Each structure stands twice: as structure tokens, then as C-alpha cells.
């Protein structure tokens, strides 16, 4: 009837080859900074132990179905002399393919249930460090009640110590997610959710809000920095220190900051005590700002202070119509808050 | 009387006259085939709109830090893409086939309620236009198709965007439930002689399961939307954390609907494939009863697994484990279907038509989506996959690889029946392979993107995460899909003009629709063909497994002649009224009132225009009950879920108030006991009224009908008095959770009583005008069923709200 490619199997194989070649060419790496398949905590190791079993089980079943389908399509194509057998069913066969998937599911279900109860019910160990996570539109606040430290968008935790992240939702639902350290957990207003995990390797881990939370959902990123214990202690000491006094441009910036609307939302210990925006006492010590968007440089901060909603859709921080000079001064002050 | 007979004579003529043409004939049509075509064309149009939205989304994501659209536009685009594809494209595409094919496949002349069918369509069309009108006023919905609170509360979404969405979804839900009730009555009650339930084609079976899912799953989301509407418009506290409300309530209500909705979208496709594969393999469906039972099981389990969408919300390990196991169980009946389809093909003689290509494509591609679904049935794995592109890949394999491929299989399969012409097979194959390639290039890489951490619903992303290359490929693939859809439209347009003419039975089919001409006459069959087993038509042509050909039974002519329903414009008027009311909610109270008046007038005219038409008298079908009673029972099943959801919410929120007045301080039990007694007595009068009508005792009938209505009015009077007293004592809708839940629950019940009173008064007036005779008793019985149900609901409310401390 026509000469177009009608061999599904042949085409599928060709397509598979093309895809495989493309995968090789692009270097399909599984170790990106947001990869869920890299385990850097006990939690993600547990998750990946189940993940591996399920992946193999589903891949094998999938291949089985594909092979049977291919055989059927090639073998039972209409041709002279081929008669369709009028079979209505086969009870034993049907019972078999009802029980077989049930058995496979058992293989998946058992480790699933074990990991659920291992990772979710274990009471936080005595030496656990509690980090309170607050998801705001569109930034992260981290409070360490036992250490009396508050920071934003960049949490530091010590390696090898159990950490309990406790989620508190002040506005809409967000989801706290640092893929290499483990699965996500929603930040739900009116609830306290938690994740317990022990980071196993020092390093800087990327994360991002995973529940749609409005205009700048995409711009709600974070970092968790896992430090060696000594480095963590130094970080805590630095965070507890009072805000450093500025000099030069920074001194002018402090003055502008103190008489502007900034103080209504932000805390800089000794200067202002706002609670709606990030605590800026040690703003300059963070490598990124704007919820993981830009490196903390004087130029970047000046541009942000000048017109936040232009840089971050929906930003709650208004354009205060500061002059270029004033913006630069405030930026110098903030960047100096190491 | 004379006019009615004249009208009837006209119908008799209409049967053998050529079908009416012109726009007006389409606007007033009640023919299931025309309504099916309207559904199909509308669904394709909305599908194109949703597809363009998807292409803009893909353009934006093709490169990092792209600025094709703003964040706000992007959020509106993915919200409307999801909403459009689910409610305005895939669901109505299925409805197109339900409408056109179900009556043909069961050997009926139309659906049980042809005008209700038209009403469903017009409400759907106008509801879809209503939601999309939001683009014209620059306020498209932007809270996601799932509309999670608190983001969708007025505080965080102040504009009318979410209002368009929540009003539109309520309108569409009404349309779906009406259609569901209609199809259930049609399938159960209007089958050809000998077409027992287990002999029904699998497509009919899957459609039946889908209708039950629609009828039972829409009430919970309707209640969820009602709560959201009250929170946004009237300041109630259903989702207000500060007042003690729980934002997860919305997620539960949404997903109790949302998960069955997945099966509402996929089961019609499963049904189509179960028809297409046997036809082109020239073999009976392997293990048809098992395929049917597995479909029923999928529908049944579908109600028990909603919380697997909420593993990240922190429900605790026990709930996580339970919902995980339940979800895994669904894989068993689903897998059984796949294996039965493969076994159907095994040993066959396969004719690889385009329809077959799509059916086989579903078996392959849905398997991918089903297996990735099993992956996130495991909560630990889900916590890494949920809200990433892995899930986007998963459900597009289910909804495109499954639903859309199945629906396209149906389109190519039934096109000759519907239009009388073939689609071009050659172009169809090009279109198929282009779709396969484009689809897999778009969505297979998204598994990988999700695994390396790309979240959903982000309007942009930075470089350095390894996401760039496959996002670009995904966008390229998406345009491949777009091109393939264009080719389908070209194929359809060419076929309508130049397509080869199709005979009645172009594919050597197995089911009843192939017995009538292509396209079928207005009345479908000159005589309803009798059925004596599965694949009767095939066996008549080719013999059974041993080659024995049964002697065809002679078709039985209709004892009363053929009566086709007369056209009506009241469905459109009523639907317009509903949308005017919704538009009023966004503009001015006067518009709401106008809309309500139009609905009332339209509804009344609708209910009474064919009163006394003999075609409407004898409606007892296969189940031995009147269509109207069957429909009312089905509707009341839906109502059980409606009130059940509201009562459950009341109980869940009981005692969570932050401020008084509390129930025990304010509820007046003695007074309510009297009104309860009054309502119970009205049920007694209703029984007397029905008996009087059945006896033909007009004096008594009138007395008891008005008596019942009067008792109903007394109850409403008590309720008005009670509400006023409560407001004086400081309990308002806005006061606390108790106020919100109490007034909404009892208010909705009061609304039901008021509707019942309206129906009773209508019956009473009919009686006064001498139009309520013995043969009209089923009407009174149906109203009586409704009335008793409303009374029973009150007993539950009285117990739960007033008596349980």
C-alpha cells in the first residue's frame, strides 16, 4: 500500500541509537550540583538504596514488555496464510501475570517500608543540631536555637553530626530541598515538618524551593555548607559577633540604611530589628545573596538595592528610589558586614 | 394535547427526512452524534490553545536565563496549560467519543437525556471560554492547575486570576457530573436486547467506570473550590491558618478528586485500545472479563491513593506507608491490562493501520509512564522525584503516551464512521512517527533532568547545573509534537473534502456501531440489532472459534415507532445563565442576579417544555427502572460525596476555633428539634402525595404536594430565624471556623431544601392545571427521592452538628 517506514521495531532501534549517541556526545553526567543521585548524607544513601532496587525492577519489566511487543508486531503481521487464532483467554496465564507483578511489588515494598520508618520515626539523636527553616516569599531563613544564630539562604552545618531541619511556614507553602543531602520536605504554614540527616562529606550543596510558591519560585535557591567541625565553630563564633563597624563609603551607607525604610524589615544587630526580611548582620559573609542568585559583590548589591523588583519578579522589597550614590554606599556598608 | 401529537408526528417525519442543517440546528441540537462532534471540535481547539501555551513554555526553558516571557506570564502559562489540557482538551476529547459512540455501541437511539446532554456541552464550552477570558482582561490564573492554598488565598493572590480559575472549574465540574449521570443511565438502561453487562464492549465498560469516577470524584473538589471561593469572597477561614484552619485540607480535597481524575483521563484510552487491538489483530480481546474487572479495580483503588501526591507534605510514616502500598497495588490491574493486550496480539493477523499504530504505541509508551509511576509510589524515592521534571516526564508519558495516543487511535478508528470518509493512512503514518519521535525527544530527557535536580514550575534556571542541553532538545521535540498535530489537522481537513468514501464497516469491526451506515442516520439504526454474545457482529460475519456461524436474529422493530427528541435552545440559555452568574461574581451583584434569573427561567422552561410528550413517558430500561429514577439515584450518590465532604470538614475543624462563640454556647437544640421534626413529617406527606398521584386522586395529590412544600418552607423559616439569631449573638461566617463550617454546611442544605420546594411547587402547579396524571407519577417519584434524601442528610447534620457534643 505504501513504502513508508512501517517497521516499528526498526525505527525504535534507530531512534534508540540516535538517543544513545546524543547521550554519549553530551556527556550525560549524573553528578551535577543538584543531582539527586549523589549521596552526601546518610538520608540520601538510604533513599538511593531503594531507588536502585526500583530502577532495576522497572527497567527489567519495561524491557520485557518492549521485547514481547516487538516480537508480536514482527511475527504476527498480516501475510498470506497467517490465520488469527480465535482465543478468548487463558486462565492460568492470566493468574500468572497477576501474581508476577505482585511479587515484584513485594520486592519494592519491603525496602520502601523499611526506609520510611528508618528515616522518619527515629527520634532525633541527643547530639543533633536543630536548624529552624523558614520559607518566605522568596528566600530562606535559618535559625539555630541552640547557638543563637540567625542567617539567610546559606546554612552552615558541621559534618558527621545529625542535623534536624525543622520547617516553619510563615506565608505560603514552600519545599526545602537540597538534593545531594536527601529528599524534599514541604514548609507548610501551621505545621512543623522535619528532616533528620547526617551530612557525610564537607562541601557546598545546592538547593532550591521545590513547591510552587508564586512569582519568584524559580528564584528561591539556597546553599547548605557542610563544614569540618572546627570550621563550623569558627563560623558560629563569627556569626555571633556584633556587626562590624563600617568605614569610608560604608559609614555613609549605614547612615542611609538607618534612616530608610530598610530598618522596617531587616535586622542588623545594634542598628535595626525588622523581621520580614533576611537578617543582614553578617550579610557580607555569605557568598551569594538574593536567595542564591548573585555573588555578594558591591556592584551586584548596589544594583539590587536600587531596584529589587526589576531584578527579582514579585520581590517584596520595594524600590526605595535611592540615588546611584546612595545605593552604592548602602551596598558598600552591607558587603562590609562580614 | 393536539400540539403535542403534532410535534410527535413531526418527529416521525424527521426520522426519515435529511438531517436539519444550519447554525441554528447545531445550537439547538440534542442529537448525541452532533453533540459528540461539537465536543470533539471544541476539545481540539482547546488542545491547540494548550499546545501553544506549552510551546511558549518550552521556548522560555530552551536556554538558561531566558527572557521570552516574564515570570508572571510563565506561571500563568503552565497553570493554564495544565488546566486546559486536563479539563478542556483530554476530558472533552473523551466525551466526544462517549457521546458519539456509546449509544451506537449499545444499540440505542440517543442518550437517556438528550437535552441534558446538550446542557453539559454548552456549560463545558462556556466554562472553558470563561476561564480563557481571563487572558483578555490580563488576569489569567497563575496558581498552578492544583491551586494550592495558601498561595491561592486573597492575601497572596489578590487579583481576579484565581477567581476565574475557581469559578471556571466549578462550572466545568457541573457539566461533567451532569454528563456522568446521563451516561450512567444510558449505559445501564438503554442497551440493545441481549446486550448484558458482561457482553458490553470494553470501551463501554471503561466509559461506565469513568462516569462513576466523575460523579463521585467531582464533589470533593467542588467543595474544596466552594471553600476557597468563600475564603476569597466572603472572608471565611477554611484555609486560614491563623484562625485554626489547615492548608492541607485543600490538598486532600484536591487530590481525592485529582487522583481519580488521572483514571478519568486514561481509562477511555484503555477502552479504545481494547477495541482497536482486537479489530486489527482479527482476534477477540484476550481475557475480556479480566480487562473489565481490572478497569473496575483501577477505578476503585483510584479513590484510595490520593495522598501519594502529598508524601512531601509530612503526613508521617504510617500514612506514607499505607498510601505507598495502595499505590503499588494499582500497578497490578494496570499490568494485567498490558499483558492482556499483548496476548490479544499474539497469534493474530495484524493489519497495521494508523489506528493500530496508535494503539500499539499506547501499549509501549504508557508502559514507560506506568513504570515511572511505580518508582514514585515509594515515598523515599518520591521525595527526590516529586516536583521535579521526572514527574513531568512521568505524567506526560501517561497523558500523551497513554491518553492522547488512545484518543488518536479512536480518532483514526472511528473517523470513517463519523464522517463517512477515511483519513489518509500515508499521512497518518508520517504523523504517527513524527509524534513518537517528537514526544520521546521532548519527554524522555525530562526523566534525566529531574534526576539531576531540575524542579518543576520554574520560569528560568541558571547555567552550571547541567540542564542546558536536554532542555534545548526537549524544546526541539516539543515543536515536533506541534508539527505532528498540525499534520493531523491537515489530514482531517483533506479527508472532509477529498477523503476516500468509507463503507458502513470499513475495518471488519466487531461491535454494533459498524452495523449502521457511515455516518449513521439520525436515529442510528432502522431497527435495533439484537445481541447474543461478545463480538456478535464479528461472529455473524466470520463464525466463532470453530467456524460456526450463528443465524442472525431478526431485528425487532420498535413497538411504538421511532421517537427522536425535538431540538431545544433552553440548554444553551441555561448554560448562559450559569456563566453570567460567574461573570457577575467578578463584576457586579446585579449581574449575578441577572444570571440567576436566566438560570431559573431556562431551567423551568427546560423542565416543562416536553411535559406530556409520549416519548417521555415510557422510560423503563434494562434495569427495570425508569431512566429518571436511575439518574436521580446516581445523582444522589454524587450528593452523598458532596455532603459527606462538607460534614467531614465540619468534624475535622470541630474544636479548632481560636475565638468563640463555640457550638455549645449558641446552638438551640429544642428549636432545631422542632424544625427537624417538621422536615421529617414533610417526608411523610411526600409519600402520601406520590400515592395520591399514582392512584389518580387529584384532590389529595394537590393537598399533599403543597403540604410538603409548606413544611419545607417552615423548615427554611426556622433556618432563617436561627441564622439571624446567631448573627445577633456574634456568630458570622467570618467569626471563626465554627461559623464558616456551620453556615456553609447548613446553608448548602437549606439551598437544597429550597430547590426541593421549588420542584414541589412546580408539580403542584402542574396538578392545578390538570397536567399531573397517573402516567406522570415517575416525575413525582423522582422529586420525592430527592426530597427524602435531603431530609436524611438533615438527620445526619442534626446529629453531627447539634447532638454530638
Can you walk me through this structure?
The complex is a heterodimer of chains A (338) and B (805). Chain A is 40% helix and 18% strand. Chain A has 338 residues and is α+β, with helices and mostly antiparallel strands. Chain A folds into two domains: 32-71 and 101-238, Immunoglobulin-like (Sandwich), CATH 2.60.40; 249-335, Sandwich (Immunoglobulin-like). In chain A, the strands form five sheets. Chain A has a five-stranded mixed β-sheet with strand order 3-2-1-5-8. A three-stranded mixed β-sheet of chain A has the order 4-10-9. The N and C termini of chain A lie far apart (77 Å). The model of chain A is unreliable at 1-6 (pLDDT under 50). Chain B is mainly α and 805 residues long. Helices cover 69% and strands 0% of the residues of chain B. Chain B is built from 24 helices and no strands. Chain B has helices at residues 2-16, 23-27, 32-61, 71-105, 114-136, 161-189, 202-234, 248-281, 288-301, 317-345, 354-375, 379-385, 389-419, 425-451, 468-498, 536-542, 570-586, 589-608, 627-653, 663-666, 669-695, 698-728, 737-768, 777-803. In chain B, helix 6 packs across helix 19 and helix 7 packs across helix 19. Chain B is globular. At the A-B interface, helix 1, helix 2 and helix 3 of A face helix 4, helix 9, helix 10, helix 11 and helix 12 of B.
Amino acid at each position: 500500500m505504501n513504502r513508508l517506514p512501517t517497521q516499528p521495531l526498526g525505527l525504535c532501534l534507530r531512534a534508540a541509537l540516535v538517543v544513545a549517541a546524543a547521550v554519549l556526545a553530551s556527556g550525560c553526567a549524573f553528578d551535577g550540583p543538584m543531582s539527586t543521585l549523589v549521596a552526601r548524607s546518610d538520608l540520601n544513601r538510604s533513599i538511593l538504596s531503594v531507588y536502585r532496587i526500583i530502577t532495576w525492577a522497572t527497567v527489567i519489566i519495561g524491557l520485557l514488555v518492549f521485547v514481547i511487543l516487538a516480537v508480536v508486531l514482527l511475527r504476527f503481521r498480516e501475510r498470506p496464510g497467517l490465520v488469527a487464532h480465535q482465543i478468548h483467554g487463558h486462565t492460568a496465564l492470566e493468574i500468572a501475570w497477576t501474581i508476577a507483578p505482585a511479587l515484584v511489588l513485594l520486592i519494592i515494598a519491603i525496602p520502601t517500608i523499611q526506609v520510611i520508618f528508618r528515616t522518619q520515626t527515629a527520634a532525633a539523636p541527643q547530639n543533633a543540631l536543630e536548624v529552624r527553616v523558614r520559607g518566605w516569599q522568596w528566600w530562606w531563613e535559618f535559625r539555630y536555637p541552640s547557638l543563637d544564630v540567625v542567617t539567610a539562604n546559606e546554612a552552615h552545618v558541621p559534618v558527621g553530626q545529625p542535623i534536624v531541619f525543622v520547617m516553619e511556614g510563615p506565608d505560603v507553602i514552600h519545599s526545602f530541598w537540597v538534593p545531594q543531602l536527601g529528599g524534599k520536605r514541604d514548609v507548610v504554614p501551621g505545621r512543623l515538618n522535619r528532616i533528620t540527616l547526617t551530612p557525610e562529606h564537607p562541601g557546598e550543596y545546592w538547593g532550591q524551593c521545590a513547591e510552587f510558591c508564586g512569582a519568584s519560585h524559580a528564584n528561591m535557591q539556597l546553599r547548605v555548607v557542610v563544614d569540618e567541625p572546627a570550621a563550623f565553630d569558627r563560623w558560629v563564633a563569627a556569626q555571633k559577633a556584633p556587626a562590624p563597624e563600617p568605614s569610608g563609603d560604608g559609614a555613609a551607607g549605614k547612615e542611609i540604611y538607618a534612616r530608610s525604610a530598610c530598618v522596617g524589615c531587616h535586622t542588623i544587630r545594634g542598628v535595626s530589628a525588622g523581621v520580614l526580611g533576611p537578617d543582614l548582620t553578617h550579610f557580607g559573609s555569605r557568598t551569594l545573596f538574593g536567595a542564591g542568585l548573585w555573588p555578594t559583590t558591591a556592584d551586584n548589591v548596589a544594583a539590587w538595592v536600587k531596584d529589587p523588583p526589576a531584578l527579582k519578579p514579585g520581590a517584596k522589597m520595594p524600590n526605595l528610589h535611592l540615588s546611584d550614590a546612595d545605593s552604592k554606599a548602602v551596598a558598600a556598608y552591607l558587603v562590609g558586614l562580614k | 394535547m393536539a400540539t403535542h401529537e403534532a410535534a410527535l408526528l413531526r418527529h416521525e417525519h424527521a426520522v426519515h427526512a435529511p438531517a436539519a442543517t444550519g447554525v441554528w440546528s447545531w445550537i439547538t441540537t440534542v442529537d448525541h452524534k452532533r453533540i459528540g462532534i461539537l465536543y470533539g471540535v471544541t476539545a481540539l481547539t482547546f488542545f491547540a490553545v494548550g499546545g501553544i501555551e506549552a510551546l511558549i513554555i518550552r521556548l522560555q526553558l530552551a536556554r538558561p536565563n531566558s527572557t521570552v516571557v516574564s515570570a508572571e506570564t510563565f506561571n500563568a502559562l503552565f497553570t493554564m496549560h495544565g488546566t486546559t489540557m486536563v479539563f478542556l482538551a483530554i476530558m472533552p476529547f473523551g466525551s466526544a467519543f462517549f457521546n458519539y459512540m456509546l449509544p451506537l455501541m449499545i444499540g440505542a437511539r440517543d442518550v437517556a437525556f438528550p437535552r441534558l446532554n446538550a446542557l453539559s456541552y454548552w456549560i463545558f464550552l462556556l466554562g472553558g471560554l470563561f476561564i480563557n477570558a481571563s487572558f483578555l482582561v490580563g488576569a489569567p490564573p497563575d496558581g498552578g492547575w492544583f491551586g494550592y492554598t495558601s498561595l491561592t488565598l486573597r492575601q497572596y493572590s489578590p487579583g481576579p486570576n484565581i477567581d476565574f480559575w475557581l469559578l471556571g472549574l466549578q462550572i466545568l465540574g457541573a457539566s461533567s457530573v451532569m454528563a456522568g449521570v446521563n451516561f450512567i443511565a444510558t449505559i445501564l438502561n438503554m442497551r440493545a436486547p441481549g446486550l448484558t453487562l458482561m457482553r458490553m464492549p470494553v470501551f463501554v465498560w471503561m466509559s461506565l467506570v469513568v462516569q462513576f469516577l466523575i460523579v463521585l470524584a467531582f464533589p470533593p473538589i467542588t467543595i474544596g473550590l466552594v471553600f476557597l471561593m468563600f475564603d476569597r469572597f466572603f472572608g471565611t477561614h477554611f484555609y486560614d491558618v491563623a484562625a485554626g484552619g489547615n492548608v492541607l485540607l485543600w490538598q486532600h480535597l484536591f487530590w481525592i478528586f485529582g487522583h481519580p481524575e488521572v483514571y478519568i483521563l486514561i481509562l477511555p484510552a484503555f477502552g479504545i485500545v481494547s477495541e482497536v487491538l482486537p479489530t486489527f489483530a482479527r482476534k477477540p480481546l484476550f481475557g475480556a472479563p479480566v480487562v473489565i474487572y481490572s478497569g473496575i479495580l483501577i477505578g476503585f483503588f483510584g479513590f484510595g491513593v490520593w495522598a501519594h501526591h502529598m508524601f512531601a507534605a509530612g503526613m508521617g510514616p504510617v500514612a506514607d506507608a499505607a498510601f505507598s502500598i495502595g499505590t503499588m497495588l494499582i500497578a497490578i490491574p494496570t499490568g494485567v491490562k498490558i499483558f492482556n493486550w499483548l496476548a490479544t496480539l499474539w497469534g493474530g493477523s495484524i493489519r497495521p493501520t494508523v489506528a493500530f499504530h496508535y494503539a500499539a504505541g499506547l501499549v509501549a509508551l504508557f508502559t514507560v509512564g506506568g513504570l515511572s509511576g511505580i518508582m514514585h509510589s515509594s515515598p523515599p524515592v518520591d521525595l527526590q522525584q516529586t516536583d521535579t521534571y521526572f514527574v513531568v516526564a512521568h505524567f506526560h508519558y501517561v497523558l500523551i503516551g497513554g491518553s492522547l495516543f488512545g484518543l488518536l487511535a479512536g480518532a483514526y478508528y472511528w473517523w470513517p464512521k463519523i464522517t463517512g470518509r477515511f483519513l489518509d493512512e500515508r499521512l497518518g503514518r508520517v504523523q504517527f512517527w513524527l509524534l513518537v519521535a517528537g514526544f520521546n525527544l521532548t519527554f524522555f530527557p525530562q526523566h534525566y533532568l529531574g534526576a539531576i535536580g531540575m524542579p518543576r514550575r520554574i520560569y528560568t534556571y541558571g547555567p552550571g547545573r547541567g540542564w542546558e542541553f536536554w532542555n534545548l532538545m526537549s524544546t526541539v521535540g516539543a515543536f515536533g509534537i506541534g508539527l505532528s498535530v498540525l499534520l493531523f489537522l491537515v489530514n482531517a481537513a483533506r479527508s472532509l473534502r477529498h477523503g476516500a468514501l468509507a463503507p458502513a464497516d470499513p475495518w471488519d469491526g466487531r461491535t454494533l456501531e459498524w452495523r449502521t451506515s457511515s455516518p449513521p442516520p439520525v436515529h442510528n439504526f432502522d431497527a435495533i440489532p439484537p445481541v447474543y454474545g461478545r463480538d456478535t457482529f464479528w461472529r455473524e460475519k466470520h463464525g466463532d472459534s470453530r467456524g460456526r456461524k450463528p443465524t442472525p436474529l431478526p431485528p425487532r422493530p420498535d413497538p411504538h415507532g421511532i421517537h427522536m427528541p425535538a431540538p431545544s435552545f433552553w440548554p444553551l440559555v441555561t448554560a448562559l445563565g450559569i456563566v453570567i452568574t460567574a461573570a457577575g461574581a467578578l463584576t457586579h451583584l446585579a449581574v449575578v442576579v441577572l444570571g440567576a434569573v436566566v438560570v431559573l427561567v431556562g431551567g423551568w422552561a427546560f423542565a416543562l417544555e416536553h411535559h406530556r410528550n409520549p416519548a417521555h413517558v415510557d422510560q423503563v430500561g434494562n434495569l427495570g427502572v425508569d431512566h429518571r429514577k436511575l439518574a436521580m439515584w446516581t445523582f444522589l450518590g454524587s450528593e452523598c460525596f458532596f455532603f459527606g465532604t462538607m460534614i467531614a470538614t465540619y468534624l475535622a475543624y470541630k474544636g479548632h476555633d481560636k475565638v468563640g462563640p463555640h457550638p455549645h454556647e449558641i446552638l438551640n437544640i429544642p428549636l432545631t428539634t422542632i424544625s427537624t421534626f417538621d422536615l421529617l413529617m414533610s417526608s411523610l406527606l411526600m409519600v402520601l402525595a406520590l400515592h395520591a398521584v399514582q392512584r389518580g386522586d387529584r384532590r389529595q395529590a394537590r393537598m399533599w404536594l403543597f403540604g410538603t412544600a409548606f413544611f419545607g418552607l417552615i423548615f427554611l423559616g426556622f433556618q432563617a430565624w436561627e441564622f439571624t439569631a446567631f448573627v445577633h449573638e456574634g456568630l458570622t461566617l467570618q467569626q471563626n471556623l465554627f461559623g464558616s463550617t456551620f453556615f456553609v454546611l447548613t446553608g448548602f442544605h437549606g439551598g437544597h431544601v429550597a430547590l426541593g420546594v421549588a420542584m414541589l411547587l412546580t408539580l403542584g402547579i402542574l396538578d392545578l392545571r390538570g397536567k399531573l396524571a397517573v402516567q406522570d407519577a415517575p416525575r413525582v417519584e423522582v422529586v420525592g427521592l430527592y426530597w427524602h434524601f435531603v431530609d436524611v442528610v438533615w438527620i445526619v447534620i442534626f446529629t453531627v452538628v447539634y447532638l454530638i457534643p
